Protein 1
Amino acid sequence: MANRKIEMYQYRDIIHRLRQGQSERGIARAGLASRDKVRTIKKRASQEGWLEKSAELPADGELIKFFENKQISQKPLAEPYTKEIERWVIKEGVQANVIHRHLVEQYGFTGGYNCIQRFVQKIKSNSNKDLTVPLIFQPGEAAQVDFGKGPTLFDRRVGKEVPTWFFVMTLCWSRHQYVELITHQDVGSWLTCHQNAFNWFGGVPKKIIIDNAKCAITKACYYDPDVQRSYGELAQGYGFIISACPPREPKKKGRVESGVKYVKNNFVPLRILKDLQDANIQLKSWATGTAGNRTHGSTFKKPLSRFCDIEQYQLKSLPTTAPDVAVWKKVTLYRDCHIRYLKCKYSAPYTLYGQELWLKSTATMVSIYYKHELKAIHSRLFIPGQASTKQEHLPPNAKFYLERTPDWCLENSKRIGPDCQFVVENLLTDPVRDLLHQGQSIIGLEKEYGPVRLENACKRAIAFSAYSYKTIKNILKEGLDYEQINLEESFDALAAVYQGKAFYQRSAAELIH
């Protein structure tokens, strides 16, 4: 009791009791102060003449000078370092034990740790850095949004356990909430959750207050944050304003932070959640049951009642046609004339190779833009590794190769003649090598030399068992297709190459017609 702080009204009470003739022991037994303290007060009051019943006690501001200020015997040992300690504590957040060690080592400080600890506590109590004011909102004016870590649950869609996050949107006036468990903190999930929340409330708040999540803000800034393009487009579609909290200022979004804690502490514990889908069903019941009908600690009203009675009528109406949830993403066209998105590939015109493009993805379509101009559109793919390719997007040499399939080669060789067909069939059925390109190139010689000369060149190549693209092209180039085939010369060539072994299952007559 000796070191207990005595309030000013208690000094007055003790002096009043002394005036009435109560003993020091009696006043101490009443619990107002220790006997020594009462004795000290009595001595001071007697010196000032306050024990006379007719004497008037001074005001509290004067009275405190005679008691509390008299207790200060000396300045704190840390006072010479006030500016340094204030900078370390307020601006840099250095702990008291670190400050004490630094002062001892660098400044020769001789005081104890408790001295520094008390000095630091005094500085913190005098600082207004952490002071806040309550944010006041009108019905329908704003909602706050955030993610919070959820439990690991089995997801029936993928057949395995997955980590989850709570998406929480809290209406600032009524405190009514929309809560959903999701498996990804990406842009698509963020937008879809907003849409689900607006449908849940049956309307749209004028303003959405958010933290600086990457799925919403691409660059955090106190005055001018960069809003994610997809989120900005959704805001335009629903007609709400995006209000991003200043970086590293979570206290300016306190309602939803408390909402996330409430969900974690109230919904999750001791609850049986079969899987992700079951958990989201239970969350809807919990939001309109336990959470909606509790007496809120700040409003002292039930959130659901405040929402149903007043706030739902102050929300902006939902648009007649809901905006598409569209994800925008910067992409680059690769050398294969495709962009990559969610492990799938989509083609775009080869002339855009190396350019920065914008991809717009909806639930069903993927569109590719260059300088705000639509350049390609594809049906959305969902299986990793799938590709959507349009022939007109490919360079001429690639289109030539892809359009001239084996069937195309066989069909055109048959039109040119039986010898050309024979050459192409054998190239395409090579057991070791892929010779499609040779077949395409041989048929391409028709454009320069005509079908008759190409057929004769193929006949001569067959006779010498050398029917490659290079051989046939040289025959045409040298005009050898006009010369008559020498059977003895061709048989000698066959013998030299195959050493007497028959390679084709045709007679000599069939080979030379």
Protein 2
Amino acid sequence: MKKGWIGVLGPLGLLALFGFAGVAPANAVPGSFSTITQVTGGLSSPIGVTNAGDGSGRLFVIEQCGRIRIWNGTALLSTPFLDVGSTGANLIACGGERGLLGLAFHPNYVTNGFFYVYYTRASDGDITVARYHVSANPNVADQASGLVLLTIDHTAQANHNGGQLAFGPDGYLYIGTGDGGGGGDPFENGQNINALLAKILRIDVNGDDFPTDSSRNYAIPPTNPFAGATAGADEVWAYGLRNPWRFSFDRLTGDLWIGDVGQSAWEEIDFQTAGAAGGRNYGWDCREGAHNYTDTNGDMNAGCPGPVPFTEPVMEYDHSLGCSVTGGFVFRNLPTHSLYGNYFFGDYCSGRIWRGVPGGGGTFTRTDYTTAAANITSFGQSETGRLYFTDVTGGTLQWLAPYTWADVGPNYFAWRYVEAVSGQGIIGGCGGDNFCPEGLISRGEMAVFLLLAKEGAAYLPPSCTTPMFADVPCSDPHAPWINELVRRGITAGCGGGNYCPGSSVTRSQMAVFLLTTLEGSGYSPPPCPPSTFSDVPSNSPFCPWIKEIAARGITAGCGSGQFCTENLVTRGQMSVFLSTNFRLSAP
């Protein structure tokens, strides 16, 4: 083969010379599978996990005694992001239900670097919400930047501290507080709209309505239900909650989900649709779940209003199934999965995990999902909507991992890329619930996959009226796609007037196909030398194309410094190539 011939033939001639036998798999409707996978161990009493929404993909794990740890996608970093418990600060009263309990990142964290923590103060156990700032090192916060926003008296009892922080779709910070501790709400905070305990509070962290009060560094949203009223605390959004340990907002709809820990009989999940007004009364301590409650002060205490104005839970379970609900999240990671749109929550004591399946009229059915060997303290969500939970006893972070194909689980190297191309309708299955990730890609299939990745799953090429190749009649379902590749100058076939639609594709050919489809037929990559891989000579016509896809991060080769030019492309590999080349969103 004469040196320099690629400059004469270009990608059309180059790709026309190669082809290998293969079989085109059929599309199939995917199944719905799931598993639990440990992300990391080595955590000390993990009780929360969240993301920063900054595009980094990192997870931030709360350790109860004052540290926030970072999982960067491959490792648990040894240096804490923040330590307000053991390194000089010693701000935290830790033990039992006390400690560093909540974490939320400002919606504009990328630009302002602010994040917020919820803890019980070392001196007296009082609830404290404070703001901190990241340092110049994105993996380390500025320990000295703490500014207390709000302090709530919680001296009398050590339990029922609440602890959840979350920014709502309205940009306000929501804060979950317990009833002050003890059994049966002895301080009667549940139905007291003037108290800040037993509530979900809502504040504006971007303002300060109390400039002379150093303990109140926030503003009151004007649409809070009691804002400016003669009765009711300005900060209150919802009341009648015993210990709303974990709540969340549906990232798609903005709906609010609350897991409220019960007394001795019932655990409940409460719900508020996005955009609904505040001021809802969820019943405690007149109600436990959807049942009348007899408290420590006697029968349904005199402070219980009637007729009952309570917002009843959408789901509940009794203590034969557990003892302490851990609120979770709506699954929004894989849109084509059967579990998409289900609300996942669990129980701390039994390790049971349920899903709330939406029904008609705003109803939800509690359905068994699995039982984990864990004390589930919190659920969390990644930037892409993956669901995680923390196990305080095992010191682990676990991934609740639904997946679409029986033969492509989360541990498969190309799992997220397979989910991307199948979820976006670019590559279907091979029959039944399988994807056949090790199956080979034919040239006919490749035409379809390339154009769908480039144009979107709704794209249809012009119909075939005149065959362009002797071996691709218009009756071939791939014919319109193959003809369109030729019209776009992506390929001229395999030689002799044929396209070889059943032949497989090599990795070197794929480099040219990817870049030419993305950039257009007039594109030429930067020349070689030098070569990026030991098995790709600098004088190879494929060298510039292979070098360029490596430079773009589309592939790192096949290992040991090689590219494996003549290896055939599998469906799993194709999923990676398409996702990275065309920047398809991967879960």
Protein 3
Amino acid sequence: MKEKPFVFVLALGFVLVLSSLGLAQDDPGIPDTVRVECVLNVPASAQFTMKIYLYNDEGLQGFSVPLTFYNPSNLDIYVDSIILAARVTSRNPSLTAARWHNESTGDTAKTLLSGAVWFSDSLLVGSGLLATVYFHTGPTWNTTLFTKVDSTAFYPPPTGTRLELVTTQAVSFAPEFVAGCLGPPPTPHKPVLTAPASVTVYAGQTVNFMVIATDVDLTDVLTITKYGVGNFTTTPHVSPDTGFFTWATTDLDTLNSPYVDTFIVDDGTGLKDTSLVTIIVKPFYHNPTLILPAASFTIFAGDTLKFQVKATDPDPTNILTITKYGKGSFTHIPSVSPTTGYFSWATVKADTGTYTDTFIVDDGTGLVDTGMIVFYVVSVPPPSLFGDLNRDGKIDLVDVVYLVNYLFYTGPPPNPLASGDLNGDCYITLVDAVYLSNYIIRGGPAPKPWCLPGDVKHDGYVNLPDVVYFINYLLLSGPPPISLNSTDVNGDCKIDIVDLVYLTTFLFRGGPLPVPGCAESDPKLFAALATHSAELVVNSSKIGEEPNIVEIPISTNVNLPLAAIQLEVGFDPATAEVLPPVLSSRTKDLTLYYSTKLDYQLIGIADLNLAHFIEPGSGAILTLRFKAKDSSFDVSQIKIRQTLLIDQSANEIPVKIYREGKGEVLVK
């Protein structure tokens, strides 16, 4: 296996005042900066230190500094300890953490996660020593190799850490970073830039080509720049690096043809290479073209709509005139191509309705182009925070279908994903679709704020800003969390300092995952649900009508009506092919949803209009179907991994699962 770069991560939150260290204090011209020391002499089997400095020009509550030793061929190096600067430790951090981890396999060979958190005050503007890292090298450390100490993200999420500073308002941003190094600088090599010598197009066509840069020094970051016509996009990267050139030409571009663009690659050490590309634009004649911003607009009555209408003509001497017929005002001064007109319409509440405007461009020679825009002026809907999954300004059955398409088919996920948790139980299942149908059709309870364990800030992510938000709420009279279940990360039905330590330990020490909270739970409801009985039985298999087809009936025994059932059925794709399931006479009036993943089939049974239910009693609800690939297929490898039985009020009913004739196989 190929070795990975050696990575350690330093993540600290603190309160202190930094002294001057060669960086200007409170200088608006210098951005927040993290700088790592270069150590040029690093012998084998020896100890040495490396210093990390920080400059900040605003108050901070925390930060994270991940580092990577970018030389996978030189990894015989070990961290002994990290000593925080005296000005840091003198502030008595309320919580400190450090974790050193060695792996023989995996994406990261060696990692170090260290941190400190203060529960009050903030880091003031200043600069100075942040920490000293003590290392030692082993006997195989190569003293001749150069190792760049760069900053990178430390994965996998959700414990991922990136280079960022966090303000006292729980807002994170990335500072400037000055890389460090170990060992002697390498002998630099000149980068090489490859580009086409010339490109020929007709006016109106788009020029597209690639520029490729390479460098023998694999750790050098290559930056490609362009001087001349057209657009050029590239992201600085190590060798090889590619830039993409594009230029949509017009007839005006024939007047100064040919064009010569200059491309330069810089490897960051001062070495460069240059290529010249000649672009020849030949004349080509077209009718005028009208460019409308959209085919239609939907606006709320009372809002003002503004947009531009553009027209082009390959004939550079033609005068283009754009006119409009319909609602709104339109200003335009006739000119040669390209030309632009400006549309504006300040609607009022009485404008609710549908309107069509026509736009025409005339090039003065009798040639024209026409386009139309439809305006839908709608009433302002009532505001809604939760339940509007498709973001159309209203909560209706379209949102229910949106969630079902995500759960069982290839529909887009809610954004953020946690917003699909409509009943606030920290899970996204068919229960949420029934819950939303109850709200829309039967006047049930409104959608609740979603629950994502650890998402105290309620932005759909679990990271360092959640700790700062929690501190501000718990200790500094900040705003309360929107979801208490998201904040009760240890699941003891209380919000207190224990949850803060639990969340910080998870983020900085690799502690246990946050769990779904119960701070908003209803013990009486749970007690009532426990009185209901529900059983699911996996019946004996039978041979289908076609060869190699195996059918497994699934039965339920319940003492109350069910609105929906969700099953996750595991199977071995090497021995069997899963087929569409079949509803029984007991469920024929409901709708079947299913999707097949790598090694399981997700099945849902529900009437989202809540007109039909699974009546109390016992009997089959559906039949699972599989096609055996060979004689190695064993029915016992079919497993019911998850079962959700949902009553008419969108509550999940406790259920026991049995295999026919073999007793209980799973208790939920």
